Amino acid sequence: MRERPQPGRRHFLAAATALVLTLAAAPAAAQATPRPDAGRSAGSLVLIGGALKDNNTQVYGEIIERAGGSRARIGVLTAASVPESQDPHANDPDRCGNSACNGIYYAGLFEKHGAADAQWIPVDLDHIANADSDAVVDQINSMTGFFFGGGDQYRYVTTLLHGDRHTDSKVLAAIRAKLADGAVVAGTSAGAQIAAGHDMVTGGESYQGLRDGSAPGYFDDPTRLGHLPEGGFGFLRSGLVDTHTGAYGREGRALRLAADTGHDRVYALQENSALVVDHPGTHDETMTVLGDRGVGILDLREARARTVRAGWTLTGARYTHLTDGDRYDVRRRAARPGPGKRPLTPSGTSPVPANNDVFHSVDNPAGVPYSFLSTAAALAATRTQRTATASTYESAPRFTVTFTKRPGFTAWTSDGTTAQSLVGLRIDVAPR
């Protein structure tokens, strides 16, 4: 299911929208004082596409190992969740979903997976003042790693950044300093989104994004493609970040937002998988993928977007999908296969299956997740087709996505038949 507004979220959204539009409309001289460069970091990021399973020992273990192994002390931030005052089930430990009970939940998981200690950092919409508490900063400074939980990324903006100045609270400044000094900062879903820099996505569905374009703001309509021009915390600036990508069919919205805002790369994170970033922001920034669902990378360096009479078009984008163990050099934009993988020699002869819902529409009760990836992988595995097309479930206009194996495309496999990783597949989007 798609994320939908939670109880009490409409009031929160209205205030958030007003703040975002103020930021977008402000002249350059009135913008926030620049935050410290999030880039020059000796630390690392572990960004998860959401739906992290309790038993994912690979991802939890990676975070803990980077935080010091058996000596790891993990600070858990869950301000993206509703606060206790807005949770009708706050007193029911089996049903609660507020920041405090989610913090206790994640702290318990980290200790279960081997951390020496894990503590909730008590900052949320009920405790905004704690973001500038010296006592909480002391708590931050005692930690060796940090984990940002999921929910609504704008709550992180509201709680850990200072209003329309968009400057760091003391707590965020302390986390930023720890990252620069070598700590690991991890996050899932909204906790991964908030790591983004300028033009952080705030919501939207792929079809409406392709049809209507993006706009600065934070909208109560969950289908409207919005972005925050000032961005999130800026831990990762080499590309936009999106989460739940294949499960929610967000490739379309990611392409449109990147094209609209002038970004030439998107990290499209998949559920229960992680993108591990070493030395974020430096010339040595490199990435490793954990988990079979993997991470998509949308490259728009050579892409051209324009609007014709029928609607918006995009030509010349490239799609890479990396899975467990694969590595990616950010500066060179070069991918390397993980252990045991080799180039796939396509041997299939069956046609690529028809796909009439390439972005897994929320309006299609028979929709299938990872639809975009499935068509790409099927094309990679067949020797009888060089191109394949898939279309949106919605019409007026109906968008067609064309996948093309051009020179430079390759796929990797470990079993000789399945295209587990894809590198450099051409993507074109056009209305009809």
Count of individual helical segments: 11
Q: What is the correct CATH architecture of the largest domain? A: 3-Layer(aba) Sandwich
What's the main sheet like? 10 strands, mixed
CATH superfamily of the largest domain: Class I glutamine amidotransferase (GATase) domain
Structural class: alpha+beta
According to DSSP, the number of beta strands is 24
Q: What number is the mean pLDDT?
A: 92
Using only CA atoms, what is the Rg? 21 Å
CATH class of the largest domain: Alpha Beta
Tertiary shape:
globular
CATH topology annotation of the largest domain: Rossmann fold
Q: How many structural domains are formed by the residues?
A: 2
Q: What portion of residues belong to β-strands? A: 25-35%
Low-confidence stretches: 1-39
- Helical amount among residues, as a percent range? 10-25%
What would you call the quaternary organization?
A: single chain
Q: How widely separated are the two ends? A: 28 Å
